[in-house]
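Hi, here's the filled form for the chain we discussed.

Project: internal
Contact: R.S.
Residues: 331
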Amino acid sequence: MRVHVIQAGILDTLQDMGRRGYGAWGINVGGAMDRFAAQAANALVGNEAGEAVIEMHFPAAQLLFDTDCLISVTGADFKPYIDDVPVNTWKPLLVRQGSSLVFRGRRWGCRCYMAVHRGFGAAPWLGSISTNLKIGAGGLTGRALKKGDIIPLLTGLPEVFRSRAEAGALPWSISWEDVYTADDRVFFTTGREWNWLSKASQQAFMEQAWRIDSRSDRMGYYLSGSPLMFDERRELLSSAVSFGTVQALPDGGMVVLMADHQTTGGYPRVAHIASAHIPKLAQLGAGDTLRFAILNLDDAEKMLLSQKARIERIVRSCLDKLQAYGQAHRS
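And the returned structure, exactly as it came back:
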């Protein structure tokens, strides 16, 4: 039971929710960029939310299944097809042995996620399957997927579907549009060095549109706009940073640290992206613009707790639907 990479994409890696507890050794958490989409993909196929998925960018990989599978594709819409039939994202999909999954265009977003029932058979490194590209560990030998790779599966189709399962989408889906709202605002809380910025720069930070630079990647999004200025030049010792930390750079620019960020940094931490808005940010890419909207810490925490509770409800609901569907279609 395996998935074969027939054609490699621009950057496809195995990712889960990351490896925690190793920051003191300089090993970052890593993991999926859009954790809402990754967890939703797992929920749709009856997995625990933190199971490993394939994170793909466009152009994405072409994958061949050598066994019947239950899969899902969430996050960005890259126009997925199973063989020559278009399929919907954010739904569970029954795939027959010998079928291939291909992506034929980019409608929306920058990262999509594919989950498979029970997950992939890659060996964990430090408790996580996530691919750490910088160290070259985790995932499939610590690198992006390439043509000819074979990814083992832990199992094939769930038992209840094996006797009489027609290929195609199952009749339910996850609502996702409100997570990736159409407006360009990304919520933030002020960082420890926010007050180092001049009042004019604080205002500009919140009022101007910032463009994501082409240098951006899984480590960080470089933002271009009017240069940020400080009231005075100060020295900062290297300090802990996290997914979503916004650092002011010496040239007046900014970088938003993303999933593969370093564990410490020496630039002023002027802001932090609200964790519940990181999925929205993760679906932006080079050339896209965003505006920052300030949020107090209590409201940011409420948003995150609400999103976590929503994921838990989605996991329970999808499990119930899979069980009910399987029972209704038993021979």
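Let me know if anything looks off before we file it.
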